[in-house]
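Exercise 7.
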Amino acid sequence: MLEIKKLCFRHKGSKEDTLKDIEFSAELGKVTAILGPNGSGKSTLFKCIIGIWKPYKGSIRANGKEINKLSHLERAKIFSVIPQEHEITFPYSVFDIVITGRAPYIGVFSSPGKKDYEKAEIALKALEIYHLKDKPYNKISGGERQLVLIARALAQSAPFMLLDEPVSHLDFRNQIKVLLKIKELAYKNKITALVTIHDPNLASLFADKIVVIKDGRIIEQGKPNHILNEKLIQEVYGIKINIIQNNGFNLICPVLDFLKNKQMGA
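Solution. The predicted structure, written as tokens, is:
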């Protein structure tokens, strides 16, 4: 379990906190979505969790261990990170990218061993992209690249997987495909998955828990169907919405008054 308590962070030279008393937990085998508009502090929170930035107050515990007391190598064995986008200059193969997930377990002057190759192959098969293993990473589609990065994270064998806007640049089909795979892997491999996202519908469909952030502060958290409502969405995003129930999920539809007025005047 990931436990964050009373976390505060302020950028150097700033007079105002970027993160203000952040407190929540993320459970084993579940997907926790950090939902909020751009600039709300989601990416800053991730950087604090993995130790890139240091909060001036509060605590972060991963399976009971204080993150700020761990070495870089120890953190690399606990957290895998999937960025929004990942571009490379050289035509490394998909397999080359995936096996870099084994870096925390390979010595500085050593090469990957049998176990490392096996872990990489298992990850490729789990993501159903084994057929791409010899293809240049920079020649495959955006959706395929995202699956490769998730395979790399899986090969890392870290109990916590952090995904920063993993589907923001993908088309609708690949958004669904990638998020389904994240949910499946979290459940099957007992991974604590933490996903930043700005689309409330995607959060509602795929997250077991949602933590809603605005202006660096948590304003609500809980199960999607319990917390996503008209009042909350208007407070966070500043738009009116209607909630539509579909197979037990809350789907959010914006109320487009300007379109109604246009149709009435037609």
